Amino acid sequence: MLDIGCSSGFLLQEIRSSFPDAFVIGADVVRGPLLGLARTQPDVPLLHFDLTRCPLADASVDVVFLINVLEHIENDALAVQQLARILKPGGLAIVEVPAGPELYDHYDALLMHYRRYRLADVLRLFKAAGFEVLRASHLGFFLYPGFYALKRLRRHRRDRITPEQAEMLVRNDIHRTGGNPVLAALTRFELLLGRAISFPCGIRCVLTARRPAAEA
Q1: pLDDT confidence of 48, banded at 50, 70, 90?
Q2: The model's pTM
Q3: Cα(75)–Cα(12) distance, rounded to whole angstroms?
Q4: Bridge partners (DSSP) listed for residue 61
Q5: What's the pLDDT at 149?
Q6: Which residues make beta-bridge pairs with 94?
Q7: pLDDT digits over 21-35, tens only?
Q8: Residue 145 CA: distances (Å) to CA of 138, 141, 142, 161, 202
Q9: Residue 112: left if φ>0, alpha if ψ -120 to 50, beta else—which one?
Q10: Residue 215's CB: how many other CB atoms inside 10 A?
Q11: Cβ 88 vs Cβ 210: under 8 Å
Q12: Which CATH superfamily is domain 50-210 in?
């Protein structure tokens, strides 16, 4: 299992806990977090590469996790083609990206996002690379109305705030929402409900895609 964009290693820990018998690898285009992970998780192999120039061999990975990564890659189509190349036949890609192109604001710019996505755009991207989409939905459905209103307000104000003010707003948002028990409870409820239904809108697009199995 390969976690691309492993950053601080939070998801790596979750993957290792959920799949204790799996061989798990972390990868990132930024070197700094990998150096930190090498100290905190010394038994996990870590790779430093740009996904659009992925050095891994064809059909060498069973599962790829790509959580909040594609929006940082200018040529996202090439990145998805690389996923299809390195996955084994029948291999899975677990993907999450920010939703709503119309909601792109200073927060996205500061986090170096090239874009936000419509779910239909993500589906086209993966189908064009030869993937079968097994499941597609949204996350943050219950938070979406407030999120949408806030994002639209900030887009309206974008030209009237300085980069320093924008950075402060982003930091305040992260501090205010991180660890919020109400948000955490809503997220848990949504995840349970999401096992049975797909949500028509939300803060993020999520999908599970499979490289087709080789023909006999």
Answers
A1: very high
A2: 0.86
A3: 25
A4: 87
A5: 87
A6: 65, 208
A7: 999 999 999 999 999
A8: 13, 8, 7, 24, 9
A9: left
A10: 5
A11: no
A12: Vaccinia Virus protein VP39 (3.40.50.150)
